[in-house]
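Much of our argument rests on the idea that a fold can be written as discrete symbols. The record that follows shows the chain in one-letter code together with its fold in token form.
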Amino acid sequence: MALPAGLHAAEDEPHDPGDPSTWHVSADTIHYDRASDEYLATGNVSVTREGRTLTADMVRLNQTAREAWAEGNVRLLSGNDVLTGRRMRLDMDEETGSIEDGALFFSENHLYLKGREIQKTGPDTYHILDARATTCDGDHPDWQITAKDLEVTIEGYGFAKHTAFWARKMPLLYSPYLFFPIKLKRQTGLLAPEFGLSDRKGEAYLQPFFWAINDSMDATFFADYMSKRGTRLGAEFRYAAGERAKGTFMADGFEDRKIDDGQEENSDDWGYTDDLYPRPNSDRYWLRAKVDQNLPLGMTAKLDLDVVSDQDYLKEFKSNFGGFEKTRDYFLDHFNRDIDDYNETVRTNQLNVNRTWTGYSLNMDARWYDDVIKRRLDDDDDTLQTLPQISLDGTKKKIYDLPVYFDLLSHYTYFYRQEGLRGHRADVYPRVYYPMRLLDAINVEPSAGLRQTAWQVDRALDTRSDDDQDFYRAIYDLKLDTSTDIYRVYELTSGGWNGIRHGIKPQVVYEYIPEKEQERYPEFDSLDRIEARNRITYGLTQALVARRLKAGPADPPAAENDYIHFLRFKLEQSFDIDRQREGLRRPFSDILAELDLTPGNNVSLDADALWRPYDSRFYGFNAGLNLWDGRGDRIGLTYRFTREEAADTELGTEAVVGVKSMDLTGTLVVTPSWQLRGKYEYNFEKERMIEAGGGITFMSQCWGVSVDYSVEEEEDGTNNGSISFMVHLLGLGTFGDQ
């Protein structure tokens, strides 16, 4: 039976499926009353239109009024969102109506809204009487918000009257009014606030606001009220026009009511004991930015800004919203570039413009190293800046059809400092190679380079004559690199492995640079003084590469194996021929050892060491061990050790330990709901703890709690401790106190 315009039975003749007004009806039985122009469908009723499906035990459809009434197990599915209830009235064109004993479920943010009556007042708006809201599954949620009256706008907010927050059956909080987000997409609005309490800041409340400017731009503003210090204001602006056209600018600051003027009481309360400088300023700020930008002519640009008011600002705001740790994590995640550590008082600001051709690369850098302490104390600043440095480098390539190769390093730099020597330097360093293979087993590569450097002094602290302004230096160097590769493949037939390759690479390198008097040349950096060299460096590298069958079908068939580089071990030492010839002591260098070990998918070890043969002692040792598993358990151990100066019994000096510390971190997933965290850093040389802490997190399906404690020990032995308590409510955000 054909239905009148706009309605079609499932078995009806073909119709236009693109007509948005068309509803398709299927049921066990369908009756039509011509007088009232009304259909009655009963038994497994399904009414569909453009991604929406209404199911019920009984549905009446009035073609004239364009209305539908549904009873019994009513369910309206729109995408992944579901509206259910006992009885429903629906305007089929406007898609407005009401449902009794209704429940709404929004899958995007896992939000349930229930009420005695749900009125659908528009395509994205609802009015709910005797409402309950939660993100918990089940009929007895762990938490919910109840309200006498609730207005909801999808992609907007919920506005509730006479609300209460319940934990199970216990009411905890009451509010006459409540706003909360109902956002399935990125949209303008308030973000979850942060609360805090500390001796340094007093009571604190931080409120961020997010502004979705358009599809490629957004911004965040925040106000951070601190009862003892003032109100810190901040802003972040982000844009993303493409993978190579994106940027983020962040700035925050405030007028601090407290200063560290060097007085004992003020330094103890408002300063930090790990630096020797006061912080007398009250105007405090931090500006940082990173930008990646495509330019014409195939060039790209990268900008890094990092300007801070004083040496204590990043310690003061290390871990909270807009703080150092969150900023560093954001820059690493989105730009793959780091920033200087929070206790570094010389901050790097850089603009880089580059272009790459086949075999060549052009880089133009402008770097400004901002010495925070010298700027703040208005001291003479002799920090060396490169404004700019332009380099053109060529990779190793063949010269025509000759068996000869060359590469090129070249740059121009203008060195600037507010106080001290300034000047220009140009450096050109071509190198020619003649690789050979002897006896089809030994790789031999002699090479020669000619480094030519020119300076022009712009200004000096001392008085120079006109003849002492321009300088030129030319130094050649020779190198002979010999090596061979020895390997054997062993077949395996267990544990999914089918082969292992053991490779050994011995290498001997001879280097020669003639001695040249260079004291009269300007000195900006290490390139201005090239030491004579006449030495042999010899080393041995071993590597193990395992082969195993890929899991699943190989595509293409040639790629049917996985290769795991799970071991690299290198030993290297140098012998100084000139020191031996001149009768100087200790011609042999320290022995360098490097180890990279990845024996499986869940463990890695990186280590390096310097061992001195003359006194049989280590002068450096660093190791990092990481263990993890598929469920999230992780432990990391880092050990660092260096000696600052060599032992020389003839001169009466002793080796001094510079760094000797251990850093241990771990995460233990006890159950899918419980997680433990811990960290411990200890300085063996100073015999004191640097930082220790731990935390525990419980996460259920719709809520969680995190408690963390950390303590840092200052140089004077005092401890700075902090504890944070955070509550996570799925769909609403994180709330807590520190």
